[in-house]
TrEMBL record:
Domain of life: Bacteria
Pfam family, one: DAO
Protein name in UniProt: Alpha-glycerophosphate oxidase
Coiled coil: none
Species per Swiss-Prot/TrEMBL record: Carnobacterium antarcticum
Cofactors that this protein relies on: FAD
Family membership noted in the UniProt record: Belongs to the FAD-dependent glycerol-3-phosphate dehydrogenase family.
Membrane-spanning intervals of the chain: 20-40
Keyword terms: FAD, Flavoprotein, Glycerol metabolism, Membrane, Oxidoreductase, Transmembrane, Transmembrane helix
Boundaries of every Alpha-glycerophosphate oxidase C-terminal domain copy: 465-587
Length: 611
């Protein structure tokens, strides 16, 4: 099976002529999850994405599969329980992607601090219990001030009390999307990127029965007919619903922008992901995360009203993050010129849902009496003397000052919403990346019921908790060992250990397909053999149509390997031009787009203004 520009054309032709059971609008993580489950259940499924897969939001996250400890700052037990349980499911169906990476949380004696040394231990113990963390390598533990500073010497020592360490997982967000997409295609879904919805179609009864679309690569417009249409376009959900002239549903999205900045690890060295209050009493928290000899940090959390297709990093964003990181790491003295890469993304938040936010709610605090009640019931819960429901009952009735008359950008819920309009258009919006499979499961259950009730079509749903994504055919209990065995195949074919391990980590159980290309390919001039293999696999098996798709979303080269990007960008464009038979004009256009995106990631314009 291939998943390439050729299969894109074939998918478009099929979608022109067949009536689908389900058409999905949006190829981020939510749409990808729906596509996988629907196609695995035998439904005639189609998916269109107006950009590259994951280009809009799902490649612009903090790149963690969170357990949600931050939600315990308002003791939101249900959110944490659901999140950590779902995280375990994601790790089992995509075991080559989420990797355990314990998080350090330094505790400072500051006004409005999220946790103190006592409450963080209570929260972490509850977290481990909810997440069923029993492996001694990953159970939480406390550190003294001296131990924290020994681990991170550059960290601010003033007012530091100590810290806690708990289990979290690093993630490759765009890879998770493409692996879901590939599996859906393998199971028969018709999938095409760069196809944009133009208007919603209706039958004689006014019910949605398809979409008028435009192929953005050819300019052709055509209709796709489907019994059901689901809108999974994330921050664009309101825009898609506005394409339906009969839809009167009020807007529901309140997107916020998050920004991340990347510097060299030699400049800001952290041995493990670190997570702390900003110190500004604004309810936000900041991540500082090591990755591939780099360190990245974020995030901001501000209401967004600009171009949804092109959120950018502003001077205000840079100033905000640099001020906080330089305060927490006072000897580092980062400037804008130290930033090697950056990204900005929109969070698909639902405006009507107050409560636990991306950063764990507002900065209210529990009364002493209420806190004692919480600690007591949590202690009983840990001793198996109380149930999770007992804990939640206490929390629902607890006295607090956590409510706000108007939600700030940092207190808008990450909850999801699944709604069916009177004309039949289904919208699945909101949510967190960690919850994507569960969100998709709810949507596909609804689709199954509707197809049976309205169209007399019966489908048995796949067990999505045990249905691996592409590349995920690995025992989740022995990931490291299995990836080592897979990497050995590449080594035996002539790759270095470093190259082969990198490809095994990137592609999981698909890595042998990547290595097999060695029998047919030679290294492209200017590229290593490993880069050549990765590029061809991206074009032939992952529908990478542009250089930017390869450098950002099929690999993380642009974000975390900036040092070698300038040397290989021309060879990559040359090889893609040869493979796709681009004209000189098209090749030049692709290089211009790549250079423009790199300059934006580099913050070249802002750096010039600051010169």
């Amino acid at each position: 099976m291939t998943f390439s520009s050729k299969t894109r054309k074939q998918a478009i032709e099929k979608m022109k002529t067949e009536t689908l059971d389900l058409l999905i609008i949006g190829g981020g993580i939510t749409g990808a999850g729906v596509a996988l489950q629907a196609s695995a259940s035998g439904m005639k499924t189609g998916l269109i994405e107006m950009q590259d897969f994951a280009e809009g939001t799902s490649s612009r996250s903090t790149k963690l599969v969170h357990g949600g400890l931050r939600y315990l700052k308002t003791f939101d037990v249900e959110v944490v329980a659901d999140t950590v349980q779902e995280r375990a499911v994601v790790q089992s169906i995509a075991p080559h992607i989420p990797k355990p990476d314990p998080m350090l949380l330094p505790i400072y004696d500051e006004p409005g601090a999220t946790f103190n040394m006592f409450s963080i231990k209570v929260a972490m113990d509850l977290y481990d219990r909810l997440a069923n963390v029993t492996d001694p390598r990953y159970t939480n533990y406390m550190l003294t001030k001296e131990e924290v500073l020994e681990r991170e010497p550059q960290l601010q020592g003033e007012r530091l009390l100590g810290g806690g360490v708990y289990l979290d997982f690093r993630n490759n967000d765009a890879r998770l999307v493409i692996e879901n997409i590939k599996q859906a295609a393998q199971d028969g879904a018709q999938i095409a990127s760069h196809v944009q919805a133009q208007s919603i179609l209706h039958d004689e009864n006014g019910q949605v029965n398809g979409v008028r679309v435009s192929d953005l690569l050819t300019g052709e417009e055509f209709d796709i007919h489907a019994r059901l249409v689901i809108n999974t376009s994330g921050p664009w959900s309101d825009f898609v619903r506005e394409l339906d002239e009969n839809d009167t549903t009020p807007s529901q999205m309140r997107p916020t922008k998050g920004v991340h900045l990347v510097v060299d690890a030699k400049k800001l060295s952290v041995p493990q992901p670190t997570y702390f209050d900003t110190g500004d009493q604004d309810g936000r928290m900041i991540f500082v995360i090591p990755r591939e000899d780099k360190t990245y940090f974020g995030t901001t959390d501000t209401d967004y009203h600009g171009d949804f297709n092109h959120p950018t990093v502003t001077q205000e964003d840079v100033d905000y993050l640099l001020e906080i990181v330089n305060r927490r790491y006072p000897e580092v003295d980062l400037t804008i010129n130290d930033i090697e890469a950056s990204w900005a993304g929109l969070r698909p938040l639902i405006a009507s849902n107050g409560g636990s936010d991306y950063n764990g709610g507002n900065n209210g605090s529990l009364s002493d009496k209420s806190f004692d009640e919480v600690v007591a019931v949590v202690s009983k819960f840990q001793r198996n003397e109380a149930t999770r429901w007992d804990v939640e009952e206490v929390l629902e009735n607890v006295e607090s000052t956590l409510s706000e008359s108007e939600a700030s950008p940092s207190s808008v819920s990450r909850g999801s919403a699944l709604e069916t309009a009177t004309n039949g258009l289904i919208t699945l919006a909101g949510g967190k990346l960690t919850d994507y499979r569960k969100m998709a499961e709810g949507a596909v259950n609804l689709v199954q019921e509707t197809l049976e009730n309205k169209f007399d079509l019966s489908y048995k749903l796949a067990d999505s908790k045990n249905y691996p994504v592409s590349g995920g055919k690995i025992d989740p209990a022995n990931v490291d060992e299995e990836l080592e065995k897979i990497a050995q195949i590449g080594i035996e074919k002539g790759l270095s250990k470093e190259e082969s391990v990198y490809l095994a980590d990137l592609y999981g159980s698909n890595a042998p397909k990547v290595y097999a290309q060695i029998d047919e390919l030679e290294a492209v001039p200017g590229l290593s053999l490993a880069d050549t293999l990765s590029l061809h696999y991206a074009m032939e098996e992952e529908m990478a149509l542009r250089p930017i798709d390869f450098f950002w979303r099929r690999t993380n080269h642009m974000l975390f390997m900036r040092d070698t990007l300038d040397a290989i960008k021309q060879p990559v464009v040359d090889e893609m031009a040869r493979f796709y038979d681009w004209s000189n004009e098209e090749k030049e256009k692709q290089m211009e787009e790549l250079n423009r995106t790199i300059a934006e990631s580099d913050l070249s314009e802002l750096k010039q203004r600051n010169a």
